[in-house]
């Protein structure tokens, strides 16, 4: 298949869904029935749309960024997405007056979307998989969502853009630095908050790891007031999100991010696809699975998220 649109009619029906999961159980004789669902990039079987919807719902629960960012599906082509690089145009216009469309014509920049491959491998006992009472779809969807969710969050935070997404902490293409400091103080956190424009503060959230959160829970101003609201776990009225993939405070590290994470775009380039490995693990009485995601991630407006950078 050249692209997903050509593949879609062949993987939508209930027959393909049944044969897909039978193939993942290691059953033979379904090669022809599922051949139209083979992804040309991975050589694996493409998950049907119903299964993909279940998987994406599970992935959003497991992965932090999937619940914060903007998720875009772009399955078919290697194209650039144009995004506004500034403010949209809103103006009062008198009856018969000129509408200032030209003011926003140049307010776009191209964002090149790549196709990065993320792979998860797991294996299960063959007897377990072939047990008719074992709900293989529920199990694999849940387990793959957990594994992919963790790997995605790491990439969306720390990715370099080389063979992986561009993370928010990337030196190039990542979030802007709002505050530099050699030790996190009450004033530094407040400065970081106000370094973000009001339009991005409106839906802003904080992102940090457990160690940083613990330090901020005890941080006070000169009057003895905590910066952390212990009643609802917010800082300056904004939700705190925890990720183990955020760094701790240290020279050159960026331990705290704040802003509107909806300006981080996750672009899914292919649905989930899974390859069954039977012969390789026959001596172990196991069946292996290679699952593939193809995606990219970029912060389309770097000023929407600001980070604190440590200088010493």
Automatic annotation (TrEMBL):
Localization: Virion
Domain Phage capsid-like C-terminal: start-end pairs: 43-309
Cross-referenced InterPro entries: Phage_capsid (IPR024455), Phage_capsid-like_C (IPR054612)
Gene3D superfamilies found in the cross-reference section: hypothetical protein PF0899 domain, Major capsid protein gp5
Signal peptide region: none
Pfam assignment, any one: Phage_capsid
Designated name of the protein: Phage major capsid protein, HK97 family
């Amino acid at each position: 298949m050249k692209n997903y649109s050509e593949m879609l009619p062949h993987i939508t029906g209930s027959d393909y869904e049944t044969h897909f999961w039978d193939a993942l159980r290691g059953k033979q004789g379904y090669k022809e029935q599922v051949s139209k669902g083979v992804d040309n990039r991975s050589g694996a079987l493409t998950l049907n749309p119903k299964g993909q919807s279940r998987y994406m719902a599970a992935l959003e629960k497991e992965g932090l960024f999937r619940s914060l960012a903007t998720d875009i599906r772009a399955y078919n082509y290697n194209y650039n997405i144009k995004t506004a690089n500034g403010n949209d145009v809103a103006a009062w216009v008198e009856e018969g007056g000129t509408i200032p469309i030209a003011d926003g014509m140049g307010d776009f920049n191209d964002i090149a979307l790549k196709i990065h491959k993320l792979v998860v491998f797991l294996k299960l006992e063959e007897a377990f998989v072939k047990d008719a009472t074992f709900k293989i779809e529920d199990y694999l969807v849940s387990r793959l969502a957990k594994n992919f969710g963790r790997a995605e969050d790491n990439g969306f935070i720390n990715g370099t853009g080389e063979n992986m997404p561009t993370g928010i902490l990337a030196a190039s293409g990542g979030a802007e630095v709002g505050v530099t400091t050699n030790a996190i103080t009450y004033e530094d956190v407040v400065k970081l908050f106000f370094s973000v424009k009001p339009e991005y503060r409106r839906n802003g959230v904080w992102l940090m790891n457990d160690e940083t959160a613990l330090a901020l829970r005890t941080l006070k101003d000169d009057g003895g007031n905590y910066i952390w609201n212990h009643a609802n776990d917010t800082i300056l009225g904004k939700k705190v999100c925890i990720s183990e993939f955020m760094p701790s405070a240290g020279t050159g590290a960026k331990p705290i991010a704040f802003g509107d994470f909806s300006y981080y775009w996750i672009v899914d380039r292919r649905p989930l696809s899974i390859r069954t490995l039977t012969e390789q693990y026959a001596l172990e009485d196991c069946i292996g699975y290679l699952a593939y995601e193809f995606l990219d991630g970029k912060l389309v407006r770097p000023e929407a998220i600001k980070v604190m950078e440590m200088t010493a």
